[in-house]
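TL;DR need structure tokens for one chain.
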Amino acid sequence: MPSYIANKSTFPLCQANRRDCPSITPLLENVVTERAVSAKILTRITFINLSAVYVATQRQQVNPARFLSATLDQYTLFLRLLAAEITRSSPSTDPATYITPILRRILPSLRLYSKWLIFHHQELSESTDFWNQYILTSTSLQTIWQDSSPPKLSYPLEEDFAAAGFAPLEPLDTPESTKRKHKRDRARIGNRKRGFDKLLLQWGRNGGDSPSNNRPDHPNVEMVLRLADLLLDALELAQVPVRLTVFELA
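>> reply
TL;DR here they are.
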């Protein structure tokens, strides 16, 4: 029997606070750290989690907070793993040296969660431990680009195509959200109506996946772009006034 099933005492990141780790979360931690799951599977789980929160909210389920809590547990886990991997890496001016096998698995999912957070941060309770971990991880990301600016995406990544038109990554349809737009809303992942289609169109005009298009040869280049995009999202969130919507447990 695999150790991540037989021995639950091997979940180091979850020992400190058990209430943040429902049964699926420590199991997920171990299959990731033991490299027993691919990035594609983790991305699919992310889509399922975000869909569950969206459907529960839109259909006014009895307790959407439970779906939100489960999603935040897994999001927080990935943030912990990211911070731990950065901390374990030797300081370097080359961001690619921070890319590890674990980060290759979780970065696409973290980027999806990050785009969801941009539009739905006001739904998170002020008391959740999620924000503490988010701040710690964002601070760790800043150490990678202490003396330079993080690079910006100029073409869509694999998860961008998968998320195009994905409703949970659309902004909330409220009078306030319609009135107040942030500068990066027009280029948000999955938000085709507000400009993501422009990124896809420009990419296609430049040759798409044709040999003439100068896409990176090494996968670490795109992983670094994912790290940088997470930091850019965190910097954007730091400038957004937060109005909280707290779900009461039934």
